[in-house]
Every structure is written in C-alpha cells, then in structure tokens.
Design a protein that fits this description.
The chain is an alpha+beta fold. Helices cover 55% and strands 18% of the residues. It has helices spanning 51-54, 94-99, 101-104, 170-181, 192-200, 217-240, 246-263, 270-305, 316-327, 331-340, 342-356, 368-392, 397-424, 426-464, 470-497, 500-507, and strands spanning 3-14, 31-46, 58-63, 69-77, 80-86, 110-125, 131-144, 153-163.
Length: 508
Amino acid sequence: MADTKREIERKYEATDDTRLPDLTRAAGVDRSVHRGLTELDAVYHDTADLRLAADALTLRRRTGGADEGWHLKFPVATGIRDELHEPLADTLPRPLAALLRSRVRHAELAPVVRLRSARDVHHLTAADGTLLAEVSVDRVRAERLAGEGSGTTAAWTEIEVELADDGDPAVLDAVEKRLSKAGIRPAGSSSKLARALAETTPVRGGKKQGKTAPHTAGDHVLAYVRKQIRTIVDLDPAVRRDLPDSVHRMRVATRRLRSAFKTHRKLLDRAATDPLGAELKWLAAELGLDRDQEVLDERLGARVEALPATLALGPVRGRLRAWSAARRTGSRRRIIDVLDGKRYLDLLDALEALSADPPLRPAARRAPGKALPRAVLKDYERLARRMEHALEHPPGPERDTAMHEARKAAKRARYAGESARPALGKPAKRFAKRVKAVQTVLGDHQDSVVAREALRTLAIQSHAAGETAFTWGLLYAREEAAAEARERELPEVWARASDPVLRADLKH
C-alpha cells in the first residue's frame, strides 16, 4: 500500500506583493526559518466528466520538491486530507489506481490541469527546535489541458500553512490570528485544483440549476437510495486501505440499500431492483466473512478476560487463538479480490444506472405523507408477526431460530423508519429508535446462540487434546444465562416498540 500522510493545512488569499507578518509573535512559535524557493510542476488527472474533482479527490503527478511522485488525496474533514504517495513513474501506480476503481471504473484517467508553482517556504519552530508548521507562499500558474476551457490559463498567489506531523492544531489557530491581523483572509477554494478548474471553466449565461428538495414519495426514496450507493462507492477505498470499521460500514450500506428495495416495492419496479438486491446480498455476505468472526472473537475474548485466574483452567487463551486462526478464511485478500472483480464492478455500474434512470412506478408520484407510512407500517406488521411467533415458543432451539428471524425483520423495519425520516420527521425517528432497541436485544441473543455453538466446539477440541473443558463449560453456562436475560427483557422492549400511538403518529 502507498505511503500515507495525514495532511492538515489552511490556505489564504494573497497577492504578488503580500508579505508574511512576523509569525514568531504567534503563540508557541519561537523562530521562522526561511527554507528557500522550490519550483513545482504538477499535472492533475481526472476523468472527462471530472468524477474525482466532484468528490474533492485530487490525483497528481508532481516533479520538484522533496516528495515528487504521484499523490492521491482523500478529504477527511475541512482542511484535513489523507495524502497517499507513490514514487515518480510515467504511468499511474497500481496501488493508487485500485483506490480509484469504484469511482473511475471503465472511464479513462487523463491530464486535465497543469499547475506550476514557485514555492517560498518558511519553517516555524518551537524553542527546542521542534518543527511546528510549514508556511509557504505559492505563486501559481494554471493551464487547463482538457475539457471545457482547454488552453485557458490562470494565475494567483496563495499562502499555505501546513501543520507538522503530530503537531498541535492550536498552532494553526495562532498563525491564522497573526495573518488575520495583517489583513490576510482564508482562501475561497479548498485546493489549488478546485481554484484552477473554477478559473479556467467558461462562464455560461443563465441561472445555475440547484438541487431541488424532495417533493414526492419517490423523490424521498431515491434520495435515500442514492445516499447508500454513494456510501458504498466512497467506502471502497477505505476498505482497500483497511481503515477501522470500513468493512462493517460498507456492509451496512449494502443492507440498507437492499432493504430499501424491498420496503418500497410499491414505488420501485421489482424487475429492476430484485436482481440488484440479490447482488447486494452476495456482496454483504462476502464483506461479512471477516466481520462475523471478528465479532465472535471479541465476545469470547472478553468473556475469557473477565474470568478470575482460578477459573481459567488449561491453555484457554492459546486454544481460543488457534481456533480463531483456523476459522480465518484469508478474508482480507478475498475482499480485495471481490472489489477487483468483474461482478462487483458490474454491480456498481448497475447501481449507477439505476440512480441515473430510476425505475419508478406510478405510486412514486404520491405524496410522501401517504405512501411512506404505508411502507413502514407494512414492515412493522411483518416484524409483529415474527415477534408473536418467537414469543409463543418455549425456550429452546426453535425459539432461538424464531428470534433470529424476528431480528432480521426488526432490522428491515428500522431501516424503513430511517429512510422515511427526512419526510416524516420525529415520528419516523421515534419509530426507528424503538425498533432499533428490539433489534439490539434480538441481536445480542443471536450472538449468544452463535457463541454457545463456538464454545461447544472449543470444549470438544479441548477434551480431544487431553485438556480440561471446564472453562468452556463455564463460559457456555454464562452465555446461556445472558441469553435468558435477553429473553426476559424482550417483551418489555417490544411493548414500547409496538405502542399503537407510535404507529398512529406515522400516519399524521
């Protein structure tokens, strides 16, 4: 994987005659060391329709400076980006190309803007010589290489203040205060590329078409569907970089999208959404291989760590580690293979096509206040039937299975409430919150069922190896008690979620 750096910086407007104020008067700064002038030449690449720029991503090949090479930047928050670096090469390095695949897919990446900058650099240091920030005055010359405005040029001067690695962001505030007193204001563009595109794109007459607020039930559903599609695309590079919780979040987005297709069958044509739902189910299953084992490992590991030493008999921790390793499927490599595969890319293409040309049914033209409550309540009724079935069973395997089925119905009903929230407001929010509580109880119960199956296997393995199975039996009993506690809790939680007033509010 490419080298990664967290870039925290702020940009300011300047002119050719702008002079930096005395920044040693900024709190915490002891010295300002002039590091000289550097010539930088960067060519920015994008698709013909500027997909990367639309998502505030920048891809460049830069020569000059200490870090020449290929750079890919992902936005994290305002003024914060993750910069990935690969050595200088004639073509885009494969690791960076992979991180862009979900957005670019079959499109070509080509040069769109060239920026040549004369960078005058100053280092701000603390009294002990520690680097606090780098301040540069950049005189930029931009040339549009492709698309609208091709051949157009622009020039400007800006000041860039970048926090040193592991630096205190308070330094940026202190420097900004000094710049502000000198009449230097924050820049209007978040990046040089954004400014270059803005200044080299021809200005057309007429009013710009802004986003219109959702009006019909179909508008609201499509907004939710498009949000989930966007989430899947955005999380693809995070999954490839193995960022925390990225696989889980991507899996949730696939489930939300699949649930939306089912919940809103009256509004979206099933002939188009059912095949996509099947592919989303496949993707969620692939993403879940590692996640499910991770959840189980965390649960069993916590149970073992909570035991007094006198009750952890035999090589309990070693046995647990060996068991977990044996169940690992090489899923990290498998996930990357899935994301690189044709089936996944075809799914992204199909989702993009659905977003661009949605298969709306006539009912989608109805007012959201009528169509959406009906869809949410239908999912609630499905959940109610499964809850009734689960609660009528005595404790045992049949009840465990029925509760698991109710859990899946609760998740779908919760997602239905969340999808309707922008249109229905607080009633949908309250409904989703109550149903989520039911889902949580049912989910913890199911985790206990899975944990008990694992503990039984561990006990059998320990016995076969001549080890005592006492600890695994003890943990099995504790999981059984935890499940019973959840079963006792469930009727009260369900009563709150099935309050008739809650459902009546959705209709009004």
